[in-house]
Amino acid sequence: MQSLNRRQFLGTAVAGAAAMSGILGAADNPAETPLKLGLIGCGWYGMVDVEAAFKAGGVEVIALCDVDSDHLSQSADKVEKLQKSRPQTFKDYRELLAVPGLQAVIIATPPHWHALQFIAALDKGLDIYCEKPLAYDIREGQAMLAAAKQHPKSVVQIGFQRRQSPAFKQVADFIKQGNLGRVVQADVQIHYSAGLKDTKPQDPPASLDWDLWCGPAPKLPYSPQIGHMAWRLEKEYGHGHLVDWGIHLIDATRMILGESVPARITASGANAYLKEITTPDTLTAQFDFTSCPVTWRHRLWGAEEYTPEVSNGIFLFGEKGTIFAADDRWVEIPKGKNQQRTAHEAKADLGGLHMAEFLGAVRTRIQPSGSVEQAFQSTATVKLAMIACDTGQSIRFNAAANQIENNPAASAMLKRPYRKPFIHPFAG
Predict the structure, then answer these.
(1) How far is the CA of 201 from the CAs of 224, 227, 276, 408, in angstroms?
(2) Is there a contact between 404 and 410 (Cβ–Cβ < 8 Å)?
(3) Most distant CA pair in the chain: distance in Å?
(4) CA dist 65 to 40, 72, 347, 418, Å?
(5) In angstroms, rounded to a whole number, what is the distance separating the alpha carbons of residues 204 and 71?
(6) E strands, 247-392, where?
(7) CB 51 within 8 A of CB 39
(8) 339-396 confidence digits (pLDDT tens)
(9) Whether the Cβ atoms of residue 49 and residue 106 lie closer than 8 Å to each other
């Protein structure tokens, strides 16, 4: 890297960090009237989001909703300790959305509930922070995108926290300045050893309304392996590791490359080791984007032992060298033998920054970085990979029409039928 370019690059990075610091500071201004928030989904990550909001400052959580009464009471206790007043509690999200004075809602339910709750919140004129993926199926995502366009005054942030990563932002700037040359190939991976819960069908906990938890999705017999938190690896609820966790790095890769949705997707996976789960514990997918192919790989077993330092991250192979990027660091390697590697640390509280950006956007009425359109593109990308894997076929996707071409079996998977009495929001 030329010295001038390095100075320019570091200046850009510092300016970005200063701007984000300003967002955090604005959200913590004690003179501001507290924003009145509600939370739908009081499990693990819902409360992580709430704590991030309190850390950013200037909020009051006035309502909580969950279909598990234990989650609801425990979360209400925690919020009461944090703000000295107890929020209202509800089992039905529609009752929460009707609370007088509510300004914004955090949606942290499993993805099969996102579409109905998101659209209902927009119809109430609320601002929304919604966890990823945007939706369970691609047609739901289209309906959510259309609803957001119909309510342009509502501020929406989708939970792609890696968009706040200084490491990924620095890599994107580094590449834009031409330091890597043309990116020829990207490899993306998150290998980890998944722990399994009891897979035996059994009665749900007395505190949990399992029928309502399943909602518009198929109602499977309850087991701890498909209940709280563990639903991520169940096909009917989370649809697997790529859709749940890998989507973060696919979104970051799209951001770095300036890409939208791939035109062709190929995927192959298997339950090579974890026979009890219903999504692949081993998966390879290739996304043919306009600029370059991107390959995803994961293993949920024997995952980290050999190369733990690169078990979670993005490789970008360019004409002038290679970059490995993770949430909090990146390494540049010039092309050629025996070249010196340069490591950069870039640590940050990504969840805190993302929530602070949302709260700042609610106050300024400027849309934040995690837009519905970007979330739709990342969600469609990973869902198309699962469709390719489930059908065993390479598929071509027309992004302008949001259609899979010349493949009726794959096209049918763009929209999952809803369980009665729920009605799918996509009417097309």
Answers:
(1) 8, 11, 12, 34
(2) yes
(3) 65
(4) 5, 7, 33, 22
(5) 14
(6) 264-270, 282-288, 293-299, 312-318, 321-326, 329-334, 342-345
(7) no
(8) 899 999 999 999 999 999 999 999 999 999 989 999 999 999 999 999 999 999 999 9
(9) yes
Is residue 381 a contact partner of residue 246, using CB atoms and an 8 Å limit?
no
CB 65 within 8 Å of CB 90: yes
Angle at 425 between CA 423 and CA 428, to 5 degrees: 110
Residues 6+ apart with CB under 8 A from 264: 287, 288, 394, 395, 396, 397
Taking the CB of residue 230, how many other CB atoms lie within 10 A of it?
20
CB distance 300 to 273 below 8 Å: yes
Q: Quick one: which H or E segment has residue 128?
A: strand 127-130
Question: Tokens at residue 384, please?
Answer: 């198309």
The model carries a pTM of 0.92
Within 8 A by CB and 6+ apart from 275, the residues are none
> What does R_g of the chain's alpha carbons equal in angstroms?
22
Digit-coded pLDDT (tens) for 317-341 = 999 999 999 999 999 999 988 889 9
Task: Return d(Cα 185, Cα 91) in angstroms, integer.
Answer: 47
pLDDT attached to residue 410? 98
- Three-class SS state of 62: strand
286-315 burial, b at 16+ Cβ within 10 Å, e below that, comes to bbebeebebebbbbbeebeeeeeebbbbbb
User: 314 is written with which tokens?
Assistant: 């993005």
- Cα separation, 314 vs 180, in Å, equals 14
Pair of tokens at residue 103 = 């300004």
CA dist., res. 124 & res. 100, Å (int): 11
Whether the Cβ atoms of residue 325 and residue 316 lie closer than 8 Å to each other: yes
Phi, psi values for residue 325, rounded to 5°? -130, 135
Per DSSP, helices labelled H in 40-179 are 44-56, 69-83, 93-97, 114-123, 138-150, 166-176
Per-residue tokens: 269: 């996976």
Lookup: tokens for 409: 């079996």
